[in-house]
Specification:
Chain lengths: 649, 375
């Protein structure tokens, strides 16, 4: 995208939704972008960081989402346009600051992009970030196609500057990660000069201090904020991002937004209902423009809401309908509440089809498309079934092996509290079922700290936590401080794989490089922990014996919080990918296989995808193509049948 | 003998607290490991029959079968088991150590066997601070380092299993009764492997009434002293009712009644006080903590004792009748207590396919139950 950025007025380009959002931000003239990695949002910051030098903008991966919004807000206070990006879970993290920011207001245009993941395709939950707009009382935009993704992002900055508050823009996986054609616009030639004006009066929004509250006098900040929201609603009444397709008086009105508007169009088209069903696609979903909505409600008696995760549009439209009931009369609503639309998971055209059939009493003949089933059957025949597992050569498999063994050996029913990252899979067989609690980032450490305190009531189970290296900086530090301070006897294991691996190796504060590829200060997590007063050990998880031995000692001696850093780069990291450290082989004559003394430990329990069981020869063997050459399995084979030899370069 | 698999070992023995931590199932495979005196199953193993179960001295032990195999007759329940002779003994002039638990008979015999090449390696029990540590010893001088009794459970047999895997085929062992029983099962080739050869060249059994749970013992001592500087632990003969602990600061005494709270539950299921399935069994001579009681059970044992005596490694004399009577009384008591317990738990000679701890004739059981009365 950067290459052609200067060329003007050309044919539509194929852009990924996230690229379109990044492009929109560039066209709006942002000078600052910040974020925290998280699928499906990460490509936005990655794209911008690639344009950073050329466009002279500052881009950073912040320590966490709250910090990211604070960084962007600062730029806004100084009059610059700033973008802040995260996935839906990140909004939870940022929300504390956001509530303050919504009160204080902004100056330069500021847009917060949240990429939600309905169906939790690559998330631990499918939280809906839209209700935050209502809680925070800021405007919410939802692009319905790729062109809108770009245009709406650009326009969001204008709106933000018009109402002097940040604007929330919500994308979803199918919007962010799919591609479509986009006609791009010009990039601004000028950049703004920042200045933070703070000498004006306390109530001067342009020149005074930027503060979020007057204690005891909410009217001073909260009142103007609500006024901004009313202005936004007014503007939304005429917004081109809200579109209607269909007859003037439809039998059924679909109210929808985002990717669901595409599914709705597809379903209406497939059933040939163009003349019976209307589609009101909302781009400005909070606050809803009341007049526009009421106008459309007036034309029909029956309304179907097509949206994912929460009944957000559904509830807000129902409120408007109730308020206008004397004019509009009784309406019939269909959606999540009525059960016509599933209340969890992603939607697709099929699900909309069946809702339409039910409501309109259409015969349920064989679907003209049978979309999903067809796609699934093609996918099933083409791809072999694979269980969720760690990659070959993944340090997490080795780490969990040792953690699991140490806990079993210890024999006091110890357990591990986990959080979010690739290592979340530790609750599955690939991690030997080691994780026993999983919640938000950093919460494994916090929960472990709590468990540690209840040991005083005669609970003697050893308590452990795991977190990733990026997570350590993101949210584990306060929890660790709490545990150290209160002498909570826990062992926190940092699975340090040298990068934010799960989302594509974005740098974090422990590495000496920034999002823009510039030199950064690498922060030594071991020194942080030591400075807190925690005992710290650092081991290589590929050394199974030593890791397990260390853990058993730490569990035995846990007097207060202690930290074990298991450091080994991710198998897919740029420095490792495609390079084998070892040639690994199985000596078939030594392999015990299914007999007593082994019973297929490597392929039945350890289960690295690089190890195969040869059912005919009754021995294990290495799949040379898949094996990453980490050599760890050589250390688990009880008979020494797996050998490793340093690979020739 | 009925052989089951790892799953049954886990549910019947380990989860029910019947495991004595002998190490019989440890280091055969990657699934059973020992840590601080406790045996743990790391991962599920799906085999229906395993060495682990077959060797375990608490799982389906058929004493008639074992007695037939080693002594050519069924188990009769007599207090001291099959034996040829019982003597008083101590180490001869050729060996001495301040670490001997009692007369040093055990260390002297093992050092002698190694020196003469009767055994290639000896499986002994050393310690690291308070923790008993199985050790495979090849040099006679190292035998003395392992002298003295460690009163908590030790996975000694794991070192035997390791020695077998290393291909050593004449192994000497010093074993408590449960360890010796596990070894006896191992030696009778329960999985009927075609190329099997008995690798045990000399089994020296120790007398044992109970052993302690390591973690409980350590925690108990930690409240009273620094367990890491303990040099020796001893239990002087009754009526003292104390345990003596020697460390850098001298001797401390702790009441035996408190120590008994820390005994492994598994020990109350153990009939054997004198390690009946061994070549030689050694204990402390009643009233003379510097001497041993030595039970000679096999021709092999008899031969080694007489050679060791000839070469100045061992000193023996006759055992007075009074001592013998008292020893038999104590051994009979242990048998009776344990059999009553096993029967009460419904784990003796079970029928209907239910798994038992122990099997032998009702006749022998009757003899045991009619015998001495324990306190
Ligand atoms: C747990 C336990 C309980 C005992 N209870 C009694 C008893 O009730 N009555 C009695 O008369 N004698 C008992 N003994 C035996 C006694 O303490 C002496 O070990 C025995 O008399 C031999 O003395 P020694 O001087 O020849 O031993 P040493 O020459 O000092 O040699 C001792 C040997 O014992 C081995 N050993 C030490 N600890 C263990 C262990 N935990 N498991 C396996 N091997 C070990 C060592 O490898 C060493 O070779 C017990 C021993 C143990 C280990
Ligand atoms: S762990 Fe070793 S002995 Fe067991 S199946 Fe694998 S290669 Fe064979
Ligand atoms: S008693 Fe011995 S063989 Fe039986 S389970 Fe325990 S350690 Fe294993």
């Amino acid at each position: 995208m950067t290459a052609g950025a200067k060329k003007r007025k050309e044919a539509p380009r194929l852009l990924m939704g996230n690229e379109a959002i990044a492009r929109g931000a560039l066209e709006a003239g942002i000078q600052i972008a910040s974020g925290y990695p998280g699928t499906p949002s990460s490509e936005i910051i990655e794209n911008l960081s690639r344009s950073a030098a050329e466009r002279n903008i500052y881009v950073e991966w912040s320590t966490n989402e709250k910090v990211a919004t604070e960084v962007a807000a600062a730029a806004s206070f100084a009059g610059l346009r700033a973008l802040c990006v995260m996935k839906q879970n990140g909004v939870n993290v940022a929300s504390d600051f956001l509530l303050h920011l919504a009160h204080s207001g902004t100056r330069g245009g500021m847009v917060l992009v949240s990429c939600d993941d309905p169906g939790a395709l690559s998330s631990v939950n499918e939280g809906d970030s839209r209700p935050f707009a209502r809680i925070l009382e800021v405007p919410l935009l939802e692009p319905g196609d790729f062109q809108e993704a770009k245009d709406m992002t650009k326009w969001a900055f204008e709106l933000s500057e018009e109402i002097r508050n940040f604007v929330f823009l919500r994308s979803v996986t199918r919007m962010s990660h799919a591609s479509g054609s986009v006609i791009i616009g010009d990039l601004p030639a000028e950049t703004r000069r920042p200045a933070f004006r703070h000498k004006g009066s306390l109530l001067d929004p342009d020149n005074g201090p930027v503060i979020s509250l007057f204690p005891g006098i909410p009217e001073l900040k909260h009142g103007p904020q609500q006024e901004k929201l009313r202005r936004a609603a007014d503007i939304f009444e005429k917004s081109p991002f809200n579109t209607y397709q269909g007859p003037e008086k439809p039998e059924l009105l679909i109210v929808t937004s985002s990717a669901c508007s595409l599914y709705s169009r597809e379903a209406v088209h497939l059933l040939g209902l163009k003349d019976r069903v209307g589609i009101l696609k909302m781009g400005t979903t909070w606050p809803l423009p009341p007049e526009l909505v009421k106008r459309h409600l007036a034309g029909t008696d029956r309304i179907l809401f097509v949206e994912e995760v929460m009944p957000f549009l559904e509830e807000n439209v129902k409120i408007l309908a109730a308020e206008a009931a004397t004019d509009l009369g009784i309406k019939y609503f269909y959606g999540k509440k009525s059960g016509h639309i599933p209340s969890v998971g992603e939607l697709n055209p099929d699900l909309v089809l069946s809702a339409l059939r039910k409501i309109l009493n259409l015969p349920s003949e064989k679907d003209p498309s049978d979309f999903l089933k067809k796609a699934e059957s093609i996918a099933a025949s083409a791809a072999p079934h694979r269980e969720l597992t760690f990659c070959p050569g993944c340090p997490h498999r080795a780490s969990y092996w040792s953690i699991h063994n140490a806990i079993e050996l210890d024999g006091r029913e110890g357990f591990v509290c986990g959080d979010i990252g690739c290592y979340t899979l530790g609750f599955l067989p690939c991690g030997f079922g080691t994780l026993k609690t999983i919640h938000s980032m950093g919460s494994g450490t916090g929960i472990a700290g709590g468990f540690g305190q209840i040991r005083r009531f005669a609970m003697n189970q050893p308590i452990l936590a795991v977190c990733g290296d990026s997570t350590f900086f993101h949210a584990a530090i306060p929890a660790l401080i709490n545990a150290v301070h209160h002498r909570s006897p826990i062992t926190v294991i940092v699975l340090d794989n040298r990068g934010t691996a799960m989302t594509g190796f974005q740098p974090h504060p422990g590495l000496a490089v920034s999002a823009m590829g510039e030199q950064a200060v690498d922060i030594d997590m071991a020194e942080i922990c030591r400075a807190l007063g925690a005992r710290v050990e650092i081991r290589d998880p590929f050394d199974l014996e030593e890791t397990q031995r260390t853990l058993n000692l730490m569990m035995e001696e846990a007097g207060g919080a202690q930290v074990l850093i298991l450091r080994q780069a991710c198998g897919l990291s740029p420095e490792k990918k495609g390079k084998k450290l070892f040639e690994v082989k199985v000596d078939e004559s030594v392999c015990v296989g299914e007999n007593c003394g082994c019973n297929r430990l490597c392929t039945r329990i350890f289960r690295c995808p690089g190890l195969l069981w040869d059912g005919q020869k009754k021995t294990a063997r290495i799949d040379e193509v898949i094996c990453a050459g980490c050599g760890v399995c050589a250390g688990i084979c009880p008979s020494g049948a797996i050998t490793k030899r340093e690979a020739q370069a | 003998m009925r052989v089951f698999g790892p799953k049954e070992l886990q549910t019947d023995i380990i989860e029910k607290g019947l495991c004595s931590g002998c190490g019989g199932c440890v280091d055969i495979c990657p699934y059973f490991r020992s840590h601080r005196g406790k045996t743990a199953m790391l991962f599920p193993c799906t085999l229906e029959k395993g060495s682990c179960y077959a060797f375990c001295p608490k799982a389906e032990v058929d004493l008639d079968e074992l007695s037939m195999r080693f002594f050519g007759r069924t188990f009769d329940g007599s207090p001291l088991g099959h034996h040829l002779s019982i003597q008083i003994s101590r180490a001869g002039g050729r060996v001495s150590s301040p670490n001997f638990q009692a007369g040093g008979t055990v260390s002297a015999l093992m050092a002698f066997a190694l020196m003469k090449g009767i055994v290639e390696a000896a499986v002994l029990t050393d310690r690291e601070k308070l923790l008993p540590l199985p050790r495979l010893v090849k040099d006679p001088s190292e035998v003395l380092r392992c002298a003295s009794s460690k009163y908590s459970a030790a996975p000694t047999l794991s070192a035997f299993n390791r020695a077998v895997r290393e291909g050593i085929d004449r192994i000497g062992v010093v074993a408590t009764p449960c360890q010796a029983l596990a070894l006896a099962q191992l030696r009778s080739n329960p999985l009927q492997k075609a190329d099997f050869k008995d690798p045990a060249a000399l089994v020296v059994g120790l007398f044992c009434t109970w052993s302690l749970d390591f973690r409980a013992f350590k925690d108990y001592l930690a409240g009273k002293m620094d367990p890491s500087i303990i040099r020796k632990v001893d239990i002087p003969p009754p009526p003292a009712e104390i345990m003596e602990i020697y460390d850098d600061q001298g001797k401390r005494e702790i009441p035996l009644a408190e120590v008994r709270q820390l005994v492994l539950p598994s020990c109350s299921f153990c009939l054997d006080m004198t390690a009946e399935f061994s070549d030689l069994s050694v204990g402390v001579l009643e009233g003379r903590p510097d001497l041993n009681t030595l039970i000679i059970r096999t021709e092999r044992g008899m031969e080694i004792v007489s050679q060791a005596r000839k070469e100045g490694f061992l000193f023996t004399e006759d055992l007075p009748e009074e001592n013998l009577k008292h020893l038999a009384w104590a051994a009979a008591n242990k048998k009776k207590r344990a059999l009553v317990k096993i029967k009460a738990e419904g784990l003796f000679n079970t029928g209907d396919g239910r798994r038992a701890v122990l099997r032998f004739s009702d006749e022998a059981a009757g003899a045991i139950l009619a015998g001495e009365d324990g306190k």
